[in-house]
Write a structure and sequence with these properties.
The complex is a heterodimer. Chain A is α+β, with helices and mostly antiparallel strands. In chain A, 55% of the residues lie in helices and 16% in strands. Classes of the chains: A alpha+beta, B alpha/beta.
């Protein structure tokens, strides 16, 4: 019989386990031990997607990294104490590092959930005082913020020759405490409790209350996004991982989008001012983000045949990126961005529900989404997927704002309308982003090719490789445009407009 | 897999204490260890608080008609498992005495355990019989406890004379057991015999009350009194028996 793990409700306590088992056995409790583990993954969930879970587990002075791999099983190696985030290259050489390095690549490993575990070992003994089953009760809670209790885990380890006792023990626990059916691995549960959804963006979702005053929800939503900006900023400045820049831009874009529909909820022209400032924060980082994206394309396995010949281009790109990073750092350390982060928090703290009741979160969100979708649909008039890039660029902003609002207010919008609009607007926003990115990459590549061609003497192989790369980007651009055509047709269906109108009319 | 046996023609010389402690120490040091209590008195089984009973009867295990694997019980110590004694072992000679290869039946029974354990310790009943021949054929090393008295030494001589008749004779490792240095005879034998018999182990086990407490505490002395002299002596004896390094002085 294998070791079995039962997961009980967070509210269950070890006393209940003790009482359930005492019915049949003499239960002897050993000394409690305290350990900690941190669940690690990249911002884009590379380990999760590869079926892996990585934990930095510490008990006293001992530390080890534990990898659970769906394909290859469990692997644990002793480790030095690490501070996270860190790159894989900061880890000591080991079989574990060898296994995760190709998966993680250049991304940083981020601490996504920190858990404290108090383990109580129990021995179930017979009348001869012989141990027949070993049980471990793990009381887990999230740390590193507001402590959140996690489900109680009970591990039943059968001893050889006493399999029936282990089965009896599980029966006693099941009858008395009704364990959960399926909760997934402890790491996944902890990450979910920490507000992450494995496989989805690492900025935790904020559950909003539809009946709450809109201004309170707005303040909470923007504060969460401000947290995300603050969390990503040091990573961008240290250039630890390009994902920090992605996180920063995503949070800034979302802040800007939410603020664009929040004019009536904030005094004066504050909403407009800060929407513009967050928009600017996105704009000043676009060049660096584009260079990162192009470097990703060049480094992609699909370009493996061109790698040697693309070396001069990579060198050029890396140089440009260094310059772009310097510019971004200067901007982020500038008085203007500093003022944005220092002035923004007090503004959020000053947002309070007025004495006269204002709109509810549900009403304000519905109206904001409906207006934005209507503006988007109006902007699609005369625009086609094959049309000039400028027209598509004008469409990208409202599409992005609508998609951000649908995500931010997902918990308070009527489900049917939300799903219909998300299905219409989400793919359109992504397609527009893909087309815009491909367009900028093509222009950037053309400029870089020009620089390479003007070198003395010009070398044919790198230029041909850049040409081949350009072909690939053009093909990607064609594919993006084809996808955009499909998404544009879907978004402009009458059903989308009807759903927006139902939202505006307040009819669920 | 290494097979150790504690064996003596005489009873009450410290076979079980040695088997229990050596098995415990080996498991503590990371060896996957099985202790097989072949003595129907079931002293080793008693010490580990396990019922002296093999499901379906020990005879079936010895005949090979029941799976040895299913009779194994975990002890309270990691890495140490026990094949409990069974009262039917009192007829072990009769059970083994049938068909071909009767002197190697124990050896064949142990073969499936090769991959599962690093060490098997056989705690044998006191006798000179077919059981003894089976043990001598199965073991790599046979530990022979000797109380430093004239009669004990005589039994060692008997065993040494018997050994050449065994087809694959094991290494014999006699050691002094229950040594009481207050007794002149004990002192003289312990000091002089090793000069005549260099195969005697460098380690002696003194007569200590802590060893006698094992039965009352139902635990190896190395587990409940790990820093005691007895525990240190058993550790040294284990090192000699398993070839893990030097032994302390006598």
């Amino acid at each position: 019989m294998e070791r079995r793990e039962l997961v009980l409700a967070a509210a269950a306590d070890p006393g209940q386990v003790f009482a359930a088992l005492s019915v049949r056995y003499v239960v002897h409790a050993g000394p409690t031990t305290v350990s900690h583990w941190t669940c690690l993954d990249t911002a884009d969930w590379r380990l999760h997607r590869a079926g892996m879970t990585l934990r930095d587990a510490r008990q006293g002075r001992q530390a080890e990294l534990v990898l659970s791999d769906v394909a290859a099983g469990r692997l644990a190696v002793p480790a030095r104490a690490h501070s996270w985030p860190a790159r894989v290259t900061a880890l000591d050489e080991s079989a574990l590092r060898e296994r995760i390095e190709p998966v993680v690549g250049t991304r940083a490993l981020l601490p996504l959930a920190e858990v404290q575990v108090r383990s109580i070992p129990l021995e179930l003994r017979d009348e001869l005082d012989k141990t027949r089953v070993r049980v471990r009760v793990d009381l887990q809670r999230l740390t590193g913020g507001r402590p959140v209790p996690l489900p109680l885990r009970v591990l039943v380890t059968p001893l050889r020759g006493y399999g029936r006792d282990a089965e009896r023990c599980i029966g006693l626990l099941t009858d008395a405490l009704r364990p959960a059916d399926a909760t997934g691995p402890a790491a996944t549960v902890a990450m979910t409790a920490a507000g992450h959804r494995p496989g989805e963006p690492t900025v935790p979702q904020l559950p909003l209350e539809g009946a709450a005053p809109a201004v309170d929800s707005l303040a909470a939503l923007l504060a969460r996004l401000a947290d995300a900006v603050d969390a990503a900023l040091p990573g961008v400045l240290d250039d630890l991982d390009t994902d920090y820049l992605r996180e920063l831009r995503a949070a800034a874009e979302a802040s800007s989008a939410v603020l664009r529909t929040a004019g009536e909820l904030m005094p004066g022209a504050q909403a407009e001012h800060f929407a513009a400032e967050f928009g600017r924060l996105t704009d000043i980082t676009t060049a660096l983000a584009d260079l990162d994206a192009l470097l990703d394309v060049v480094g992609d396995a699909g370009c493996a045949d061109l790698h040697a010949d693309l070396a001069p281009l990579v060198e050029l790109l890396t140089g440009r990126r260094r310059a772009a990073l310097r510019a971004v750092r200067a901007e982020l350390r500038s008085e203007r961005v500093g003022a944005l982060t220092t002035r923004w928090r007090p503004v959020l703290q000053g947002l309070r529900a007025p004495d006269v009741p204002g709109p509810t979160t549900r009403d304000a969100a519905a109206r904001g989404v409906a207006e934005t979708v209507s503006q988007l649909l109006a902007a699609t008039a005369g625009v086609s997927a094959e049309g000039p890039a400028a027209g598509l660029e004008a469409l990208a902003r409202p599409a992005s704002v609508a998609a951000e609002l649908l995500t931010a207010y997902r918990t308070v919008l009527p489900e049917d309308e939300r799903r219909r609009l998300t299905d219409a607007v989400g793919p359109l926003a992504r397609s527009l982003t893909a087309v815009g990115t491909a367009e900028r990459q093509r222009a950037l590549l053309a400029a870089l090719a020009d620089t390479l061609a003007r070198r003395d003497p010009p070398r044919a192989a790198p230029l041909l490789a850049v040409g081949a790369l350009r072909e690939r980007i053009l093909r990607a651009q064609d594919a993006a445009r084809a996808g955009l055509g499909r998404d544009l047709r879907r978004a402009t269906r009458p059903a989308t407009r009807a759903a927006a109108e139902r939202l505006a009319g307040g009819r669920p | 897999m290494t097979v150790l046996a504690t064996y003596s023609i005489k009873g009450g010389v410290g076979k079980t204490s040695t088997a229990v402690n050596l098995a415990y120490l080996a498991a503590r040091d990371g060896r996957r260890t099985l202790l097989w209590d072949l003595d129907p008195q079931a002293a080793a089984t008693f010490i580990f608080r396990i019922r002296p009973r093999v499901r379906g009867g020990g005879e079936r295990v010895l005949r090979g008609s029941a799976d040895l694997d299913s009779a194994v019980k975990a002890t309270d110590f990691d890495g140490l498992e026990l094949l409990p004694a069974d009262f039917t072992y009192r007829h072990m000679d009769l059970v083994l005495d049938g068909g071909k290869g009767r002197k190697r039946r124990l050896q064949r029974l142990l073969e499936p355990l090769l991959a599962e354990y690093d060490l098997v310790v056989l705690d044998c009943p006191p006798s000179v019989s077919l059981v003894s021949e089976n043990v001598l054929n199965a073991a790599d090393t046979v530990l022979v406890p000797l109380i430093p008295t004239t009669l004990s030494l005589r039994t060692l001589e008997q065993l040494s004379q018997f050994l050449p008749s065994v087809r694959s004779a094991p290494r014999l490792l006699p050691f002094f057991s229950m040594v009481d240095r207050r007794k002149r005879l004990h002192r003289e034998i312990v000091d002089t015999l090793p000069r005549e018999r260099p195969d005697i182990a460098a380690t002696s086990i003194p007569a200590l009350s802590v060893v006698e407490q094992m039965a009352a505490r139902r635990s190896p002395v190395a587990a409940f009194a790990p820093r005691s002299l007895a525990s240190r002596c058993y550790a040294a004896l284990a090192a000699e028996a398993l070839g893990d390094g030097g032994a302390p002085g006598r």
